[in-house]
Write a structure and sequence with these properties.
By secondary structure, the chain is an alpha/beta fold. The chain is built from 11 helices and 19 strands. The radius of gyration is 23 Å and the shape is elongated.
Amino acid sequence: MKCERLDTDVLVVGGGNAALCAAIAARRKGARVLVVEAAPKFYRGGNTRHTRNMRCAHDTATETLTGPYTEEEFWDDLLRVTEGNTDEALAKHMIAASKEMLTWITEQGVRFQPSLGGTLSLGRTNSFFLGGGRAMLNALYLTAEKLGVDVLYDAPVTALEIDGGSFRAAIARIGGRDVRIAAKSLVAAAGGFEANIDWLKEGWGERAENFLIRGTPCNRGDVLKMLLANGVEAIGDPTQCHAVAIDARAPKFDGGIITRLDCVVFGIVVNRHAERFYDEGEDFWPKRYAIWGRLVAAQPDQIAYIIFDAKSLKLFMPSLFPPISADSIGELAHKLDLPVEALETTVGTFNAAVQPGSFDHTVFDDCRTRGLAIEKTHWARRLEDPPFYAYPVRPGITFTYLGTRVDREARMQLAAGGATGNMFSAGEIMAGNVLGKGYAAGVGMTIGSVFGRIAGEGAANHACN
């Protein structure tokens, strides 16, 4: 069968935030740009559809941000959550470039609103998209289309032609036909491999069968595998990822942010044996919420339960699903199919260990336990006001960190040494350069926006010169 042919200056593979920032930046540099998105138009945008904010350094308060967030503080936060597992030079380059992003992305039609409340505590550090991720995406697509960027949907890339570290063409499956797309530059922004359970199992084993995928089912890592097979250098650990505890009743794929639970700090978390296994009050939620997916993944059957009482019910944004409630801890244990005596003992022992203090979830308060094997160091209150509530949670994988190594120009590096000739990457597919482990709220969108813009401009400069 004869393969149809297209050609362009810059080919962008992917359809989310990073891809659109790259496409817009390349088009504004004068390049012809084609975006190929594996998903149908309604589901375009990958995980960006489910986001709500991005973290950028800024010097002063704005209409939507309550105060400054310096480059130094951003770096300290990133260093803390990654525990040093980051490319320092590249991360600091991203943070410095993030200062321009709020202005740049607003110029592309994206609008912001003041921070949401609850346990997020992000009013100073993170900018929230007016209308959420889908509205943000729609604004970027509208701008791209007005600029003359071409977009093909339902167009998964099935092969890459790479010669000596230089991109020649991609084969995409479009309308049941193979189409060869030649381009002078490539921007790979096709996400991670979190929706590929078999690939997850290579690192996690059978535990991955119990993982829920928060975002798109399209992120299977096909483009990443092709790039690595063609000599691009890998970076990152295949078991490291952005993983949070989400409602265990969420769908296997695409449940999105409405299945996330922000109530850990208000209660205790137990496993299927009704045992606590970590300090629920270790740090502010935006800096530590992403550790809970990995913690739950290490528990029997990869499930846990957040237990809290009536006084905390309205202090956080709820899940899509209602909490399970009961008038006593014993009744709650029955409903959760947990050992009744064990849960009653865990709660009773916890309550006895809670020290007097002034509860305030917006600061590191003095409400803590004393005498437990695993202390709760902040925001500890006795669970004694019925009804009692619980959310069952499982690991919710947002995106994986194994990806392509890049330099500060977002140019992919070769495993044999040196940079590729005309291949750039942005977003989740190269997030492991910045995120070796851990996560801070909004950083994924920062990586996508900053490196998307850098990649697009670099790809256009190469194509036009």
